[in-house]
Amino acid sequence: MLHPRILFKYRKLDKSCLELLLNRELWFATPASLNDPFEGESSFSEVLDAVWDRYPFPKEEREYYHDVIKKQLSETGICSFSKARKNQLMWAHYADEHKGVCIGFKEQLIRPEGSMIYPIDVTYQDNYPFKEIIERFHHFEHQPGMNNIQNIAGDILYSVLGTKYTSWSYERERRLVFVSSKAVEFSPQAVNSIAFGLRTTERDKATLKNITSGCEWSHVKWFQAVKSKSKYALEFERI
């Protein structure tokens, strides 16, 4: 039997984190609202301008592609996760300097079959993905579906959404991409584990335990981060 893929979400223990569990909703944000400044609309325009320089299209086609991709970009929702729970930088940057939590989700339960939620494993590189995008144009150029610009634009959009600058590689990010920017419900069974950081206060721990005290949360595995005694690393003790 295959073990379920667990995706980790690092969070500051604030109102939005508590509401995530109380309302059982994950927010799929627009690319423009993400913390990487190279993921907004202006950066997409720069990428496309560079592609047109290298792979010229008639002006009318360029404008149409640009409009379709811009529309899809404005409507697409992204929910970001990490594939690692022991990442000290993630604990520092996204979990309030180890005062927050790391929630483990079973991927197949937050993107069930037929849900229109698609996974992307982010790749990290120094340059924009010009080569990959141009290869996609080449691939579709002689396909019967070349006139299906919506699909082509979506494929290009996902190629760009799946690429980030090398400096972000520590995140080991896996993205779930939805066809719209909105909150998506999940069941308590989708939550596999909750880990407290090195500095999470007892008060915050009690608050989180209280809102997940119902029987529907009884399967959740609870962990406490501790410093390794032999190396610069985190270990997790079951609590």
UniProtKB/TrEMBL annotation:
Record-linked InterPro entries: DUF2971
Pfam families named among the record's database cross-references: DUF2971 (PF11185)
Top-level taxon of the source organism: Bacteria
Protein's name in the database: DUF2971 domain-containing protein
